[in-house]
Give the backbone structure.
Amino acid sequence: MGKVLVAYFSATGTTKKVAEKVAKAAGEDLYEIRPAVPYTKADLNWMDRSSRSSIEMKDKNSRPAMAGPAADVSPYDTIFLGFPIWWYVAPTIINTFLESADFSGKKIVFFATSGSSGMGNTLAGLKGSVSPTTVLVEGKMLTRVSGKELENWVRGMLN
Ligand SMILES: Cc1cc2nc3c(=O)[nH]c(=O)nc-3n(C[C@H](O)[C@H](O)[C@H](O)COP(=O)(O)O)c2cc1C
């Protein structure tokens, strides 16, 4: 099965908490995807059509920069990748992350948190950011799952 990395982006802490549980259940490394410019409360206001998140999510080609050097994913075979759902899909910084390293031949299992939406077309929006040999698994919404359900899901994904 090889080495496993749990990587996540979290703007307000919800996905971070879930990612920590996933890493604990997997007994593996945790990596935070941090934006070079952190998102302020105003940036995250989806009611404001001119807020930073609104502008980024309207532009499928936006690639918000990450803080620090790209993650070294070379030792890992499986990557759990978590994020909040923004406008029904993954924030475009997830595309930045996927395009910043070589995930050829690796398996990426997505997980997310949201107010109520499911994964929707999330997978389709991320496919173009990895090599055709990367295996993408739609994964699971982990907003309101029990600790036990989360553990069982992580184990199932690792088998
Ligand atoms: C810009 C923006 C857009 C969002 N769009 C959605 C959405 O389309 N559907 C939904 O259910 N929740 C949406 N949410 C709510 C977040 O997905 C939810 O609060 C998430 O758990 C936040 O995770 P975080 O604390 O790790 O950032 C949105 C939040 C933000 C800031």
Notes: Residues 14-26 form the longest helix (13 residues). The chain has a mean pLDDT of 96.
